[in-house]
Protein 1
Amino acid sequence: MTAMNDQFYRMKRMPPYVIAEVNAMRHAARLAGQDIIDLGMGNPDQPPPQHVIDKLCEVAAKPDAHGYSQSKGIPGLRRAQAGYYARRFGVELDAETEVVVTMGSKEGLSSLATAIIAPGDVVLAPNPSYPIHTFGFIIAGATIRSVPVTPDEEYWASLERAMSFTVPRPSVLVVSYPSNPTSEIVDLAFYERLVAWAKENQVWVVSDLAYSELYFDGKPTPSIMQVPGAKDVAIEFTSMSKTYSMAGWRMGFAVGNKQLIAALTRVKSYLDYGAFTPIQAAACAALNGPQDIIDTNRELYHKRRDVMVEAFGRAGWDIPPPPASMFAWAPLPPALRSMGSLEFSKQLLTQAQVAVAPGVGYGENGEGYVRIAMVENEQRLRQAARNIRRYLQSVGVNSSAA
C-alpha cells in the first residue's frame, strides 16, 4: 500500500506560529517550578461582573437550557448588541439582519473568510497584525498583500499601489483600531475617507474593534459604522473578551452590511449551533446591565500602563506609552536590536522570567518589537522591571545608557 499524502493543502499554506514557540518555553518553565511573569498573552486577569456570573448560573440551572442554541445568536442578545451600538456610537442596527453573534472575534473572522473568499482572492491586511487577520483568510485560500498599520499618507499611498498593481484586484481590506499589536488609533475622519475609498474601489472593509473601550486619552474610540453609508461596504467585529473580562466565554459579534452578515450567518449555520444558551443569556446581562466594569477596566489598564512605562524606563528599556488597548508595542533596547524579537523574547523568558510576545509573530514588519500585555498587577509589573533591569545589566546595557 502506498503512503497517503500527508501534505495537506491548508497546512502547507500556514507559516509557523512563532508565538507558540515562546508559549511552549513558558509552559515548560512553569512546569519546572519557575515563577514566570506572563506578559505574553492578552488574557484578562479580572473576573466579569458578579451579576453576569449570577445570570449564567441562574439560566444554567433551568432544565430546558441545555439543548442546541441558535447559531446566529438568541434574539435578545442580538437586540442587546444593537442597543450597545445605539448607546455608544449612535448607530441604529437591525438586530435581525445586521447583527450576528460569533464565538469570539476569531471564529467570526475565520467564518466570514470561509463565506466570502474564493481561492486566489487578494486580501489587504495590516502588517504587523493580529494573526487571525491574515491566517483566517489564508486558510480560506486567499493571498495576502500587506499594507501598513500607521494611518498616515503612506497608508493611503499603499492602498492605491495595491489597487493599481495587484492581480486580481483586492476584494477585501482588513482594518483594526485600536490596533493589536501596535495599539495605534484612528479618528472618525479616517473611517470617512476609508468608506469613500472602499466604495470607489468596490472593496469590502472588515473592521475589528475588539479594544473599543480601552482608550486612555479621554477621547472615545470611533466605529466605522458611524460613517453614513458604511453599511454599504463594511462589517465590524466586536468582542466581550476585554470589555467585560469574558475572554474564555468566547462571545463576540459582527454587525453591518446585510449581505456580509447573511453570508457569515449561513456559513455558521453549517458549522455550529451557537454558544451555550446560558452564556448568551449572561452576555445579555452584561450588555443590558450596569456598565461600571467598562470604566473600571479602562482605569485599571491605564494605571498599569503608567506603572509599566515608568518602571521599565528606569530599568533601561524605554517604551512608548500606548494610547489604547491592553498592549504596549515596545521597540527592542537599541543595544540589543540585532538580536531580533524572537531571540530577545526567549532571553527575557529564560534570563528574566518575563514572557512577552515576539513582534515577528505578527508579521515581518513586527521585527524589532515585542508586544507586552498589561495583564499582571502593578506589583508584578514592577517585579518584571526589576528582573529586566538585572538581565539588561548582565548583557552590558545599564539604565543610563539604554
Note: The chain has a mean pLDDT of 94.
Protein 2
Amino acid sequence: MFVRAYLRASTVEQDATRARKALDTFAAERGLRIAARYVEHESGAKLTRPELFRLLADCQPGDVLLVEQVDRLSRLTSTDWQKLRSEIDAKQVRIVALDLPTSWTLAAPPDEFTGRMFAAVNAMMLDVLAAVARKDYEDRRRRQAEGQAKAKAAGLYKGRKEDVARNDGIARMLTTGASWSQIRDTAGCSRATIAKVAKRIAAAKPT
C-alpha cells in the first residue's frame, strides 16, 4: 500500500503546498509514509486535472489518496463527481481526508469487515461533502457575480487588471514556438489566458 498526497490550489497565486505539514503529520502519527505528492493548480470545479489523473494512473489497488479536505478533491458537478468516483473505484483507491474522520480508518483497516463497513460509510459521507463543496462553489460564484453586477451598475467595476508583464512574456514564448503546456507551466496561467494572448497576436498581424 502506498499513500499518495494530493495538494491542490485554484491558482498559482495560492499556495497548493500549504497543507503539506498537516498531511505529513497525519501520516507520521499512523506510522505511514507518503510515497509521492502531487501538486496541482487547477479549479476543483474542473474534472480535467492532469496531476490528479497522474496520481490515479500511478495507483495500485489498495493505495490511499490523501487530501486535507474533500473540497481539495472535488467541487465538481454531480455528473463529473460520479465520473471521478467511478475512476477512483475502478482503481480500488481509498480516499482519506483530514476533514472526514470516517475515512481515517481506511488508512490502515484492521480487518476485512471493519474495512468494508467504514468504506461504505465513507462513500456516503464523501458524496455528502462533495455536494456541500459544490454548493459552496456555486454560492461564492453567485455572490461574486451579484457584486460585480452591482458595481457595474454603479460605474465602479473595472474588471480584473491585466498582468501586462506576464502576458508580454506569454506573447514572446508564443512567437518563439513554445508549446502551450510549456507556457502554462512557466507562466503559471490558464490555457484561456494563452488563447487570449494568441488571439491578440493573430489580430495584430498584417493581412
Note: The chain has two domains: 3-135, 164-204.
Protein 3
Amino acid sequence: MIGPANLDYVAHNRGGVLRKGAMKGIVFSGMQPSGTPHIGNKLGALDNWVKMQDEYDCIYGIVDWHALTTGYEDPKEVGRQSLELAMIWLACGLDPQKSTLMLQSAVPEHAELHLLFSMFLSLPRLERIPTYKEKLREIEGRNLTTYGFLGYPVLQAADILIYKSTHVPVGKDQDYHLELTREVAEQFNRLYGQLFPITQTVHTVFPVLPGTDGRKMSKSYGNTSSLTDSEDMIKDKVRNMVTDPQRIKRTDPGRPEVCPVYAYYQAFAPQEAERTAHECRNALRGCVECKLGLVEPVQAVVRPVREGVETWQQQPDEVARILHTGSQQARGRAQQTVTEVREHLGLWQP
C-alpha cells in the first residue's frame, strides 16, 4: 500500500526508472467483476498476485468499466459483484497493507488517459488484436459492435501505464495482451517525449487449466468451478467432468495428456499425477474412480477461500473502506501521471 513511507519510492520512479535499492518494480493487474472467479483464476492469477506483494509495488484493480464492455445492457450487478470480488481477493490472501486494492471507476483519470491514447491509435490496429475476434466468437447473443468493446485494450493500456507499471503478470500464452500497451508507450514517448516505461511481463508458472468440458475454462461456457461453490457443487462438477473421448470401456487404455481430469491432478494433486497417468494408460483405474479421487484435492483449494469470503461477508463496511482507501491512494498516483501527460502534450492547464 502506498503510504508516507513509500512516497520517496514513488517520487523517485518517474518514467518507470527504479532507484537503487527499491523493489523490483511497479505491478498493475486487474480482474473484471463479471461473475465469481473460478479455480483457474486462483491458480493462474491470484496465487501469483499474492506472492508478488512482497517483491513489487503492487496495484490490483477491480476493473468495473471493463465489465461494461460486454455487460453494458444490464450493469446493475457490477457494483454488487465488485464488492464480492474484493472479498474473494482478501480471502485468497491479497493484503491491503502490502498492495493497493482499488476500483477502476473510482479513479476517473483512467478514462482520461484512455481518451488521450485513443487519439493516435488506428482502428485497423485494434481490429487485429487476437482477443477481439476470439471474444466475438465466444460471447454470443450480445451486440459487441461497440467502440467500448473494440477499444477495451486501449483502456487496458491506460490502466497499466497510468501507474507507470514496469511489470504485468500474465501466462506465457498471453504475451500478446501486452503488445498494444508497449506500442502505446513507445508511440507516446516518440511523439511527445519520454514518459512511460516499456512494460515487461512476469510469467506465471502455472499452465492453463481446461474447463470441466475440456474446452477453455470460461464463465461464458459454464464449465468452471467457482471459488465460492459449495462442497456438493464441487463434487457434482468433478463427477461430471469429461474424460478421454476414446476411452469407452473400463478396459480401454487412456490418454492422460488429452484428459481434463489428469490436468486437474497435475494442478491440485501433483503427488498423485504420475501414478494417475500410469494407471490411465494401462487401464488400471476407471474414469469414475479417477474423478472421485480428485474431489477432495479440489475441495481443499476452494474450502478456505469460501470460508474466508463468508467471514468477510460479515464485514461489508470494512471491505468497502479498504477499496475506498486503496482507490484514493491510486488516484493520487494517477493524477500525477495525467498532469505529466498534459505537460508532454502541451495542453494548457488552468
Note: Strands lie at 26-31, 57-62, 100-103, 167-170, 200-203.
Protein 4
Amino acid sequence: MMLKLLFIGDIVGRPGRDIVAERLPRLRTEHSLDFVIANAENAAAGAGITGAIAKSILESGVDAITLGDHVWDQRGWENEITQIEHVCRPANLPASNPGWDHLIIEKRGFRVAIFTVLGRTFMGLKADCPFLCADRMIEQLKAQADAIVVEIHAEATSEKQALGWHLDGRVTAVLGTHTHVPTADATVLPNGTAFMCDVGMTGPYASVLGRDVRPVVARFIDGMPRRFEVATEDVRLSGALIEIGASMARAEKIELLTVRR
C-alpha cells in the first residue's frame, strides 16, 4: 500500500486561504491524497492565526495545521489554541506555552505524527535546541505512530539541511518552511527520509514574501517603517507531495507541487 501526503507551505493571508479552499478538494481527488498538513502561521493578514481562520482552513480539507514563529501574533490566540483540535504550535517553545506540541492523524489505519521545531539561527523566539527537541519527540512518538513528519521552521538552509541528515532514517520526512521561497532540493535521503529545505509559500507570488512590493523595496532603500499589506496577484498553492511506503514508513518519492489560481 502506498500513501500520499501533501504538506502545504506557509499560507499567507486571504489569498492563501482562498486558493486552499478553492483547489484542495480537487487536489485530494486528483492525487489520491491520504493526508494534508498545512503551515498556517501567516494566515491572518500575513502574521499569525485566529480561531475562526483555523476552523475555516480545516473545513477546506486540511487534516492538521502547524505554526511557526508568528504563532502568538494575533491577540487572544493563546486562549483559542487549546479549543481547536488538529492545530499544534512549535514543539521547542517553552513548556509553559499553551497548545499541543504534536498531532497524530490517521487514515486507512495508518497513523502519521507531525511536529514542528523552530530553528535558532537568525530567529527571534525563545526556543530550545531543535535537534535535541526532535530527538526527544521521536522517542515519545515512535510507539504511537506509523510515520513521523518533522517540520523545521527556520531561516538558515544549513540548519535545515543539518536536521535532515540528523534525522535521516528515523522519520519519514523533514520539511522546511518560513522563508516562503520553494527550493529545488527535494530528495529522498539515503536512509529513506524525504527532505526539502523549503516547500514554498501558498499566497501571492507577485510580492516580496507575500507582501506588497513597493513598501518593502522602499523600506530597504531608506529604512523608514511602513505597513506591509498582503499582496494579491499571482496566487499559488505550493507544497511538498510525498509518497510513503506504508510497510516500512519510508518515503519513496518527494516532489514540489505548485498550483496556480
Note: The chain has one domain: 2-260.
